[in-house]
Amino acid sequence: MKIIRQIAILLALGCSLTQGQEVSSIYGEKCANCHGADGSGNTELGRTLKLRDLRSPEAQKLSDSKLIKIIASGMDRGAMPGYQKELGPDMVKQLATYVRSLGSAPPVAHTGKATNPERSGQSASSESVNPSAQRQGKEASSIPLEKQVELGRQFYQARHCNLCHTIYGKGGSAAPDLSAVGSRVTREQLVQRMQGRRAGTVMPPLPSETTDEQINELVEYLLTLKGNK
Questions:
Q1: Residue 72 lies in a domain
Q2: How far apart are CA 102 and CA 77, in angstroms?
Q3: CA dihedral of 73, 75, 207, 32, whole degrees rounded to 10
Q4: pLDDT single digits (tens) 67-84
Q5: pLDDT over 60 (residue 132)
Q6: Separation between Cα atoms, residue 39 and residue 52, nearest integer Å
Q7: How many other CB atoms are there within 10 angstroms of residue 145's CB atom?
Q8: In a domain, 212, yes or no
């Protein structure tokens, strides 16, 4: 019986560790780009959006139910997306607990240096403009245009571009409204912009593993936005 109890304790500890690693990873993927890995909000987007320090007394005094509701439903008219449907109620509660745990570290003043988890370890060479940018806008894809547009829309949502950009009245206001971007710029200009995103701008960089095909699909989606919905 003693051995069985010891095994049960070890399994429980292992499960708890795995869950802790999972929620930390999800926070890093969904939240850190704006709020920072430490919750300080000291990121390019965080400073632009004037996000509160999640470790501050103001944030930490929020009730558990209020914190869960914010994570589940979002706030600021979609500037912060809700994650109830994507992550489920259990993970939303774990995220709320994780945010609460950030309060154990004292708030620090913003230093002006951005903290962007996607760029850690990324060399300057990976930030340079891809020489195929202009060609990519002209090359035909084997994927039907309608499918490219849908894949581009999905990429836009997955990268949470709506945190800063607005499309047809939905999204943030920290960056230009994209509702009519397809009427303002050419395909080549959009491709170059996507390929050339680099540090020092408010818009965060695309992941280094983003393919030319994904960029082209995103561009095809943006080109459908003519401001006439």
A1: yes
A2: 25
A3: -90
A4: 999 999 888 766 677 888
A5: no
A6: 9
A7: 13
A8: yes
CATH of the domain at 42: 1.10.760.10
Token pair in block for residue 212: 């030319």
CB neighbour list of residue 216: distance below 8 Å, 6 or more residues apart: 136, 137, 139, 141, 148, 191
- 65 and 137 together in one domain: no
Question: Which residue in 10, 37, 13, 15 sits closest to 24, CA to CA?
Answer: 37
What pTM value is reported for the model? 0.49
Q: How many domains does the chain have?
A: 2
The whole-angstrom separation of Cα 205 and Cα 209 is 11
Range of the domain at 183: 130-223
The yes-or-no verdict on residue 208 having pLDDT over 80 is: no
Instruction: State the CB neighbour count (10 A cutoff) for residue 109.
Output: 8
Q: Examine the domain organization and report whether 146 and 217 are in the same domain.
A: yes
- Whether residues 93 and 50 share a domain: the answer is yes
Q: Dihedral of the CA atoms 202, 207, 210, 214 (nearest 10)? A: -50
Question: CA 204 → CA 187, 194, 199, 207, distances in Å?
Answer: 21, 11, 7, 9
Question: What is the residue-wise DSSP string for 131-150?
Answer: TTHHHHTTS--SS-HHHHHH
Is the same domain home to 174 and 139?
yes
Q: What is the pLDDT of residues 168-195, one digit of tens each?
A: 988 877 678 899 999 988 989 888 888 7
154: number of CA atoms within 13 Å, CB side?
A: 8
Reference 197, options 206, 208, 210, 186; nearest CA is 206
Look at residue 112 and tell me if it is in a domain. Answer: no
Any idea what DSSP says for residue 124? G
